[in-house]
Amino acid sequence: MKIIRRLERWLGKISIVELYGELSATVLKKDGRIKNLGIVARRKVTTEFVNFLVDQLQVETAAIGDFKYHLSGTGTTAESNTDVLLVTPIGTTRTIGSQEEAANNIYKSVATISYTATYAVTEHGIFNEQYAAAQDDGILLDRSVFSAINVVNGDAIQFTYELTVNAET
């Protein structure tokens, strides 16, 4: 913020549009217990998504409305806005999530991912394509890394992803 304030002194008020993602998780244990973990990550909207968004303003395709495919993994490499896939995905099936408007400026997608083995889930991504032939199918909107959520066969995690888009400040 110091840099922005200095630039504003030199150039005048700078308008900033903000995009940020939040990921929440609720663990659904096979014995019926439910544990709401709340927000597990606030991190990286990817450069890949930002470039895609600018491209869509030039040549719109149906793909802009398809960011609903959730995938989890066990990778622990820190997030980067240059990420284009998960580090260590669990399986090859992306789970289709709901799509809704949580508020006028918040896009929300909710998906429940079920597990058939024991994992320490540590990463999540949201894409605009089902995982067809290769893990890099589609565009990664956001990759989040968080503390391990331990699951066993029969457990599930309900992920809620929210993308907030704020107008200039």
Question: What can you tell me about this protein's structure?
Answer:
This protein has 169 residues and is mainly β. It has one domain (17-166). The chain is 13% helix and 44% strand. The chain has 2 helices and 9 strands. A 9-stranded antiparallel sheet has the order 4-3-7-8-2-1-9-6-5. It is globular and about 60 Å long. The chain starts with a helix and ends with a strand. The model has no long low-confidence stretch (mean pLDDT 88).
Q: Could you give the distance between the termini? A: 13 Å
Cα-atom radius of gyration:
17 Å
The helix count comes to 2
Number of strands: 9
Helical coverage, percent range: 10-25%
Count of separate structural domains: 1
Average pLDDT metric: 88
Helix and strand topology:
Layout: H1 2-11, E1 18-28, E2 34-45, H2 47-58, E3 69-73, E4 95-96, E5 100-103, E6 106-114, E7 119-127, E8 140-151, E9 156-166
Summed up, what is this model?
By secondary structure, this protein is mostly beta strands.
Key phrases:
169 residues; mainly beta; 9-stranded antiparallel beta sheet; 2 helices; 9 strands; 13% helix; 44% strand
